[in-house]
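Possible regression after last week's pipeline update?

I re-ran a chain I had predicted before the update to compare outputs. Posting the input and the new output here so someone can diff against the archived version. Not blocking, just want to make sure nothing changed silently.
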Amino acid sequence: MNYEVVLPAAGSGKRMGAGKNKLFLLLQNKPILIHTLNVFQEDDNCTGIWLAVKPEERDFIQQLLQEHGITKVKGLPNGGEERQHSVHSCIKEMEQVDIVLVHDAARPFITHEIISSLVKGVLDKGAAIAGVRAKDTMKKVHNGVIVETVDRENLWMIQTPQAFRFDLLYEAEDVAEKVGFLGTDEAMLVERLGYPVHIVEASYDNIKMTTQEDIVLGEAILRKRSLEKI
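New output (post-update):
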């Protein structure tokens, strides 16, 4: 089943401490952004990519797209102050499609297998997001003091992509904008409508490039994948 994907790419990457958009940092001599885009460029089921960008970075990103043969990008609307605003900016410019995915541009290690499972989840249930089971002991803390040890059996660490019927996400984004609600992810906006969101088990490799330590780990993941292909 075909889908289109939205990639918010207008963040500042302050925690990376790179002094520039972290998506332009290199992993094995290629920008993080291009690693992520290549996943969708090479997926036959992806019919369009939407990038929310900073206006001052648009020309540079267009140059990167051309240099690396990324041809599926349909639009580069202005990103907003928050991720939610960037996603909404893209959604409002898209034509009606059946399925839309939202993916962190800084998660370059998502696989076609996980994407396919998410798309199937949307076909069956309307909304499906990627995540992994919590591995560590979880504590609820107040003012620096542990108040509860939380049962991790039902706890998941949420990732992206997050996949939805287009009309469902459009409505969720539109309602949130009208009432001034700011969510932490797209699933939260859909949940507010009372619509069930289902989980698809993803991979612990599907990390988000956030700190310098993640760059080191990302290089290791790429080396591991190269060895697996031998």
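Follow-up from reviewer: compared with the archived run. The mean pLDDT is 95. Marking as no regression found.
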